[in-house]
Write a structure and sequence with these properties.
The chain has 339 residues and is of the alpha/beta class. The longest helix is centred in the first third of the chain and has 19 residues.
């Protein structure tokens, strides 16, 4: 058996602590207490998607002097659990109420109809109610640029992709990455693996991601891109243990994440989703009394997604990356959102 490492164990412990402490937090007041934020599994300390949402939430709370309450999803929960979490925030007077992640798509749109005076938002799903803001991102476009970088930087001619859950959202990451690799260096091999088919535990299982990454490294991949939330920390750790290998982070600029400081020299780049900007924009719109509703898409041309340059590890191929970005923005390159 492989040794259970510090970062994997710490990641799971942090996620559990995030749920316990967030679920117990509250603010006084009878109405309009501030912002209600419902995290996906992993909570604010997942070093990825939820953490990005938390940055936007924290910024808005500070700027507008708002209260707030955070609640975090658990592994294996039901649709009814998510509905109850959102309902409790709305009933308590929080406005807006934001569901972080596609898993909240149905529940946000359903619960919002019972609270027409409250603004709701859901990240990575569409709006289906008048008072819901549906926020989506062009993950496939950012992932295309990661594919360009991987194809140009690999020394073995083989790269890997690890997805947390085999669903339509994560397949967008895969599709863009694979297309970017193949458009750049058609002979490059790509090893694709998913941690789980449907269980959202795939975003909170760093040990499984670490094992998958080790298998890819053993098979010759020297660059691994993981779109798996907290699970991706396990992949990054495995890559850091392999001399000459690179990890590609996701959602946040993971090179800059303090929890990954020991591994930052192995994080070549990250595909950044500006979830923090989206969360902040929703909160600000409510404060401005012009609530954001309907669907809003954050694309590469709008800097809704980007490729991080921290560490300077992709400076030598930045010209090719910038050229690909311009072609996508101009419509010359059409990036598929399905594998």
């Amino acid at each position: 058996m492989r040794r259970v490492t510090k970062i994997a164990a710490a990641g799971v412990a942090t996620a559990a602590l995030a749920f316990t402490s967030a679920a117990c937090s509250s603010d006084s007041g009878s109405s309009d207490k501030g912002v209600g934020l419902a995290f996906d599994v992993g909570g604010r300390s997942d070093a990825s998607f939820n953490e990005s949402a938390a940055r936007g939430y924290d910024k808005a709370k500070k700027e507008f002097d708002l209260g707030g309450k955070e609640l975090t999803a658990r592994d294996g929960e039901t649709e009814a659990d998510r509905e109850q979490r959102l309902t409790s925030l709305a009933e308590a007077g929080y406005n807006p109420v934001i569901g972080v992640g596609f898993a909240y798509g149905k529940s946000v749109n359903k619960v919002a109809k019972d609270f027409p005076d409250t603004t709701f938002a859901v990240i990575d799903e569409a709006s289906q109610a008048k008072n819901v803001a549906g926020i989506t991102f062009a993950e496939h476009e950012g992932s295309y640029l990661a594919g360009v970088a991987a194809a140009l930087k690999t020394k073995t001619g083989k790269v890997g992709f690890i997805g947390g859950v085999h669903n339509n959202l994560i397949k967008k990451f895969e599709a863009g990455f694979v297309q970017g690799v193949k458009d750049t260096e058609p002979d490059t091999e790509i090893d694709v693996k998913y941690l789980y088919e449907t269980d959202i535990k795939g975003f909170q299982d760093p040990l499984r991601a670490k094992s998958s990454a080790e298998g890819m490294l053993d098979s010759g991949s020297d660059i691994i891109y993981s779109a798996a939330g907290l699970s991706g920390t396990g992949s990054i750790e495995a890559v850091a243990a392999q001399e000459g290998a690179w990890a590609i982070g996701v959602d946040s600029d993971q090179y800059r994440d303090k929890a990954l400081a020991d591994y930052q020299d192995s994080i070549m780049t990250s595909v950044v989703k500006n979830v923090d900007v989206a969360v902040y924009d929703v909160i600000k719109s409510v404060q401005d009394e012009k609530p954001l509703t309907g669907d809003t898409a954050f694309a590469l041309k709008d800097d809704g997604v980007s490729l991080a340059t921290s560490g300077g590890f992709i400076e030598d191929v930045q010209g090719e990356i910038d050229a690909a970005k311009q072609k996508i923005a101009d419509g010359e390159i059409k990036v598929s959102d399905t594998p």
